[in-house]
Amino acid sequence: MTLKALLTRWFDELLPRACLLCGARARAPVCADCAADLPRLSGPLCPVCARPLGAPAQACGACLKAPPAFDATLAPLVYAFPVDGLVHQLKYGCRLPSAEFFSRVMLAGSRPTGDLLMPVPLSPQRLRERGFNQALEIARPLASALGLPIDATSLYRQRDTLPQSRLPWRARQGNVRHAFACRRDLAGLTVIVVDDVMTTGATLAAVATALKARGAAHVVNWVATRAVSRGPA
Description:
By secondary structure, the protein is α/β, with parallel strands linked by helices. Helix content is 35%, strand content 14%.
């Protein structure tokens, strides 16, 4: 973590807290009133990709037609206003309390079972620019609460990619194809993959493909937010 990120965390812990959304004094990164108003995913949901369904089903049409490499997805929040602002503050404003808030919300919902957690890695260049990996910052409290190990080094990006947010939805799958690799034997293990946002699911599918190539039996996505308004899962 860079000096900037460390100083940001230190000031956030030392100074009186203000809600990241409304600015009111709060004992948490987001005050209770703002937290209650956040858009949340509500069922029934596709158990594979967490897409909202009209009725309970084994999976959504997209996952039945073209099953992704991952096996399940859990996500508490919809990636929409003002949640998207919290994600933006975390990634580009170095507002690490957003990661703490996302971890709390994820732990308050359904919890996956598995053998270890792996955060989605950044490219070395993007990690140097940002100073921290937001997925890792979210994953730390999750691993502690679940009593599971966290592996932040075995999964890596073997090639840099364009930011997914800059690409049309249909181009995202090709952008991350073969972008990830894993240097660890995962034979028979259930891996919980942690990330901040799931949009098309292309990045998480590429991650799951890399993990299963190393023997992972199951891959479960545990993400803070899920985009549901458009595009394929």
